[in-house]
Amino acid sequence: MNIIKREFMANLKSLLLWTIPLMVLHAVASIEFSAFAGDPAIAEAMENFEILFQALGTNVADMTKPEGFISIVSIYIYLPLAIFSGLIGSGIISKEEKDKTAEYLFSLPVKRNKVIASKMVVAVVNSFLVNVFVIAAVYFTYVRFDVSEGYFQFLFNMSVGVFLIQMIFLGLGMVLSAVLKQYKKSGSITVGILMSTFMLSILIGMVDGKLDFLKVITPFQYFPSDKMLLGDFSVLYIIIALIITIGTFASTFYFYKKRDLYI
Amino acid sequence: MNIFKFELGMMKKSIFLWTFFVPFGLVFYMLFFPMMQGDTETFQSLMDSFPEEFLAFFGMSSELPVFSLLGYFGLSFGMIQIPLAIQASNYGFHILSVEERELTADFLLSKPISRGKILFSKYLAALTSLTIVNIAVWISSLLVLLVIKGDESPNFTNVNLVLSTTVFFQLAFFSIGLLISVSIKKVSSVLSFSMALGFGMFLLSSFGSILSSNIFKILTPYSHFDPEYILINGHYDWRLAIISILIIIISIPLSYFLYKNRNIASL
Q: Which residues of B touch A188 (CB under 8 A)?
């Protein structure tokens, strides 16, 4: 419990530094959105425009409706939250070695497994808090517009989807900092994977339909916002996400127990 | 000169990785261009039937559609700017703060060299490594364009102009990183800082283009050197580019001043 408290306080600053700017960003976007919310002229033009989007293979939701607009800007929920979780995952494990506090921590009468478990609790809770606060900020800033009945359900689905993606990168960050000999590398590799999967995901979106087999390796394509709007969770991707999450969490324990700490 | 050599030696691996992976990403993106081409004529006639303002609203332009070679290149280059920005800000945050974090500042600063010279050597070392990556991106872009151009004849003057922005783009991020790292007390984790800067600015710029808001555009170097603008107009968007160039110029004396007076944390 002591470690949990200690870790939570140590990570509070970064939690706030991520949550508040993201909330502000989405609030500002909603002010811009109010300029064309419900504008029939744009809605009509969008309808004409849809042919072009279909031809280009992208499915663009009606951006005069809050739901449509949120799914257009949703990448700015998915991506930053995934980065947050990846960084906290690799940081929370490797920071003892970086700050030269590993010697102190592991000479305390606490098992390594318990230390890791406490750190995991904090990392998961922090990821959850960022998720809830950002989605709640989106919910409350757009609820003043003309929202449909499924609005809450849509954001709830998105929150679940984003949380699953966050867990994948959290686990990845943790297992890398437990396995790699050089603690410094875990962060860069996590970010490298995150960035390449993100860029791959954009590429998949651009050349629509022809690269679908690559969706399996890009977590950003597991729970896309247009599917969340329909409440359409793919069972396959949920299973993949759970397997990766459980696998990485479990192997973090396994590898860290045997780790030769850098002191 | 010794510091310069030492720093370059320390960065060797990082330079190698970035020089390999950034051009690789660009080439990988560009190789999917043939898939985009498909039904060009239908697209073109569709695009023509919409007014220019509407297309601009969605980040498209009838002069530079994504299924044309240069339109697709502009898009791919826009993606490649993200890793370039992250690398540059990584070096900016890392290069001075690492001495304090790894407790080597005492050793370095007790040598008979001025702080100004330390800053200067490190600046040059970072600039050299950024330039190596820049050159690699430049060459690979031209090569991949030559390979996939087919019977199109793209305007290489504009392509070169786009590629020439890289050095300013990198230096802008490097300078911001350097300035922040000398003005705050401690850079605890370089990666979180550079991710926040590199990706945060990218988020702002794409928000700016979705909302076509000028406030966002002023804030972020990504919009200062928007590849699509240059590919269409054949020149820099000077009103915006000048902001980045000013940041680069001002940051040099400012970070020198701040570093000279810095209270270095030591054991």
A: 191
SS (H, E, C) chain B: CHHHHHHHHHHHHHHHHHHHHHHHHHHHHHCCHHHHHCCHHHHHHHHHCCCHHHHHHCCCCCCCCCCCHHHHHHHHHHHHHHHHHHHHHHHHHHHHHHHHHCCCHHHHHCCCCCHHHHHHHHHHHHHHHHHHHHHHHHHHHHHHHHHHCCCCCCCHHHHHHHHHHHHHHHHHHHHHHHHHHHHCCCCCCHHHHHHHHHHHHHHHHHHHHHHCCHHHHHHCHHHHCCHHHHHHHCCCCHHHHHHHHHHHHHHHHHHHHHHHCCCCCCC
* Min distance A259 CA to chain B CA atoms (Å): 22
Structure tokens at A27: 């609030």
pLDDT in tens, B8-66: 999 999 999 999 999 999 998 888 887 766 656 666 666 666 655 555 555 556 667 76
- Per the CB < 8 A criterion, the answer to whether A134 and A20 are in contact is no
ipTM of the complex: 0.78
What contacts A230, CB < 8 A, 6 or more positions away? none
In a domain, A14, yes or no: yes
Number of Cα atoms under 13 Å in the Cβ half of residue B135: 7
Please indicate, yes or no, if residue A263 is contained in any of the structural domains.
no
Domain residues for the domain of A125 are 2-257
Residue in B36, B189, B203 nearest the CB of A76: B203
User: Does residue A33 lie within any of the structural domains?
Assistant: yes
Residue among B116, B130, B115 at smallest CA distance from B175 = B130
pLDDT recorded at residue A191: 87
Which of A14, A17, A52, A186 to substitute to test the interface with B, most B CBs within 10 Å? A52
For residue B211, give the nearest of A29, A87, A98 by CB distance.
Answer: A29
- Asked whether the beta carbons of residue B199 and residue A83 sit closer than 8 angstroms, the reply is yes
In this complex, the residue of A49, A80, A195 whose CB is nearest that of residue B83 is A195
User: pTM of the prediction?
Assistant: 0.85
Q: What percent of chain B has pLDDT over 90?
A: 45
Domains identified in chain A, total number = 1
- The answer to whether B195 contacts A83, with C-beta atoms less than 8 Å apart, is yes
Q: How far apart are CA B95 and CA B92, in angstroms?
A: 6
Contacts of A71 (CB under 8 A, 6+ apart): A61, A225, A226, A228, A229
The shortest C-alpha distance from B229 to chain A (Å) reads: 20
pLDDT per residue as tens digits for the range A82-108? 999 999 999 999 888 888 888 899 999
Assess if residue A138 is contained within a domain.
yes
Gap from B168 CA to chain A (nearest CA, Å): 23
Q: Is A138 on the interface with B (CB under 8 A)?
A: no
